[in-house]
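User: Fold both of these, please.

Assistant: Here is the first one.
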Amino acid sequence: MLFHYHFWTPYLEETEKFYIENGFRISLRMGKYEGEYQTFNPPLDWDNFREKDITFRIIEARKGAINITFGFGKKVIFDHIGFLVNPNEHDEICNKAREMSWKVSSNDRRTFIGTPYGFRIELQSNLDAIDGTTDIAKIEELELFVENGEFKKDLSQLFNKQADNIHSFIGETSTINKAVMSGVLISSKIDPNGVNVVRKGN
């Protein structure tokens, strides 16, 4: 199940505000401050730490079965999309990725698969990565720009099934152009990183 995407961005506070306005909750803020990684989670808000020199590694926004993360970058860079899979699916997908000569990197928490498209694919088997069920909110479709190749075809090969909720088009830079979601509040609006978040049914 498609559940996640991640960007590096200079627009951290603006991005957080956007997703809160869409009904998301902020579950995590972690950044380096005075040489150490620390958390600045709610109920703290930006007025509590805006003036501190914090380099945020990750801010996490959640709603239902959607998990969106972003961290500080000097410019907007799309990093990865994520799928919730069971352990058997995880192993099959990793084996297929190796057959395709895509790099597989795993740790105790998650697996990343490198693609030739300038971004990664995350495989996540821990259900605590989401807040709830798809009845509350989920990513229905993603529309991506990729620099070259046939990402949708390769994704279908990787997962051994048609990637019906992923659409890809050739663009100058690999990024997410549109995210169709159920359970969000705003009918259609572009986030600070260029993702057009559209409520399903518009």
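And the second sequence with its predicted structure:
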Amino acid sequence: MGEVGVDAQQPRQEIRFCRAPDGVRIAYAVHGSGPPMVVDSCWLSHLQYDWQSPVWRHYLAEWGRSNTVIRFDERGHGLSDRDVTDHSLEARLGDLEAVVADAGYERFALQAMAQGGPVAIAYATRHPERVSRLVFYGSYACGVSDDPEDEQLNDTFDQLIKVGWARPDSAFRRVFTSMMIPRATEEQHVWLDELQRVSTSAETARASRRQRRLADSSALLAGLEVPTLVLHSRGDRMNPFEEARRLTAGIAGARLVALESDNHIVLEDEPAWQVYRAELRDFLEADVPAPREPAPERPQTLEQLSPREVEILRLAAVGMDNDDIAQTLTLSVRTVERHLSNVYAKLDLHGKSARTAAVARLLTRA
């Protein structure tokens, strides 16, 4: 892992890596402080390149002021493994699950950016106990379209990527840039032109776009029972505003905020940016615990653990992973994970080092 900083005024991010269920290595970054917020990745990302972005930088700084932010490069993109062909909804959901498990947070707000919508919906459906708040930004529930004109347009985009994605001349990539941030400066346009080239290969860009267009989580919307905020630019040319209306109508109690912008990525000097900041901050403040009197201190000892928790911890101490423990004790892997989470909570241990610290306490007592 490593740390990357921009300047003294910027927060710092820590780059980490984990493995998806199919073995693909996924890069993720953590920065900021406060209640955790996981950002479900959009189509184009590069954890290090984004960190210095004149298009994205204000988002990263804003999020980190009030939250511990966990964001990641999807498979085939950025610092994650590049030689990947499976960009299906299930594979992308596995990436998100792997990042969350490795980061070690039990409950968090989840913000879906752009094409991350179907994945976030599927995750919140599969793990409702983990998601405290759900935010969609410029996103949608279904990438499938039955409009022949949409298919023709996507075929044209596919050819543009094939012919021009890797060229030094950014003329072909500027088509996508102009759709994402039509009201940007030339500096911002040039940066997004370059992000396309450095974030992934032309082959992966084409494959991932094709498989994203098959992603459909719309049937899951009615089953979501989580506070939900939908933020969307009214003039968005990448994902039309109608997608935000469908999301909001499909989730009970969801609230829609229209951002008065033509940019898919709202820029820092737009009035819409201040609306986004205020709405997101107010929405996420519900996850900030109210001040309370400190509880009397009590020793965090192994005596607090149940016999089953001690048994699982002993197996972890001899090097077994969760799958091995589950097989040995005839339990599900999720049950093992739940027992270990209880161990960490009782011993006041957090983050990636919690397992190591818990085992060390067991061995010290022995």
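The two ends are 32 Å apart (CA to CA).
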